[in-house]
Amino acid sequence: MLGRIVNIVNLDAQYRRPSGWLGRSIGRAMARDHQPENRWTIEVLQAGPTDQILEIGFGPGVAIQALSAIVSAGQSIGVDFSATMVRAARRRNAAAIRAGRVQVLGGEANNLPFAAARFDQVFSIHSIYFWPQVSVALAEIWRVLRPNGRLVLTILPRELWNLDNPDLPVGTPECRPYRPKPKIFTSSRNMACFRPLE
Ligand SMILES: C[S@@+](CC[C@H](N)C(=O)[O-])C[C@H]1O[C@@H](n2cnc3c(N)ncnc32)[C@H](O)[C@@H]1O
Questions:
Q1: Rounded to an integer, what distance in angstroms lies between the CA atom of residue 60 and that of residue 27?
Q2: Rounded to whole angstroms, how far apart are CA atoms 125 and 66?
Q3: How many structural domains is the chain composed of?
Q4: Looking at residue 7, what is its pLDDT?
Q5: 18 C-alpha to center of ligand 1: Å?
Q6: In CATH, what number is assigned to the domain containing residue 175?
Q7: Beta bridge partners of 153
Q8: What is the pLDDT of residue 53?
Q9: What pLDDT, in 10s, does the model give residues 88-147?
């Protein structure tokens, strides 16, 4: 019965914007399955204790939780447009939120509710595939990053989405896998860096 229900719901839509009981369950799966990407991204950020850091599309809030142990005197702030994930991440980060080291907010990548140059670093893990207008979101990120701030976007390249059958098409209109083509990211800033997750 559960299998039939799962088959008739659109799972891509749930990964794009988790909601309800299925969204909570997908959030738990993401917390478990995305550990390597979360750990790798935190390593690349090399955050300092006083950094101001923004995550876009935090899902269950695992990366923010790990970061909050490092950023002890700064702030780790997250924005995600799923109310279900905001609640899950608030539960996961309750102590750090009470201590003022973490904020977990509802919001859109296209319209970040922050002042210009607010952050030292911005990052996002497995979320850019779902953003409706990547260039608008990148312009927003550029606005909220301080000069010489750092942006880290962690993705699974298109080639790795279906290793069993790489010729099969991947993605849907609402979920667009990326090839790591630096030119996508170089239009507004003089940087691009892709490193494979080992
Ligand atoms: C596949 S999940 C990844 C979650 C988490 N980063 C991880 O790796 O486990 C994508 C997340 O991005 C969020 N998201 C997608 N599009 C968004 C947008 N335009 N603005 C804000 N959040 C978005 C979704 O709600 C979801 O929580």
A1: 5
A2: 14
A3: 1
A4: 43
A5: 8
A6: 3.40.50.150
A7: 124
A8: 98
A9: 999 999 999 999 999 999 999 999 999 999 999 999 999 999 999 988 999 999 999 999
Neighbour-count burial for 137-166, b at 16+ CB within 10 Å, e otherwise: bbebbeebbeeebbbbbbbbebeeeeeeee
Token code pair at residue 172? 């849907």
Measured between alpha carbons, how far is 74 from 68 in angstroms, rounded to an integer? 9
Q: Which domain holds residue 52?
A: 2-185
8 A C-beta contact, residue 158 and residue 179: yes
Position 62 in a domain: yes
Task: Determine which residue's CA is closest to atom 9 belonging to ligand 1.
Answer: 30
Q: Number of helices and strands (H, E) in the chain?
A: 8, 5
Residue 192 resides in a domain: no
Nearest to 75, CA basis, from 57, 111, 100 = 100
Q: Is residue 154 part of a domain?
A: yes
Query: Ligand 1 site: residues with CB under 6 angstroms?
Result: 15-18, 30, 34, 37, 56-59, 79-82, 85, 108-109, 125-127, 130-131
- Does residue 167 sit within a domain? yes
- Neighbouring C-beta atoms of residue 103, cutoff 10 Å: 16
Contacts of 151 (CB under 8 A, 6+ apart): 121, 122, 123, 141, 145, 189, 191
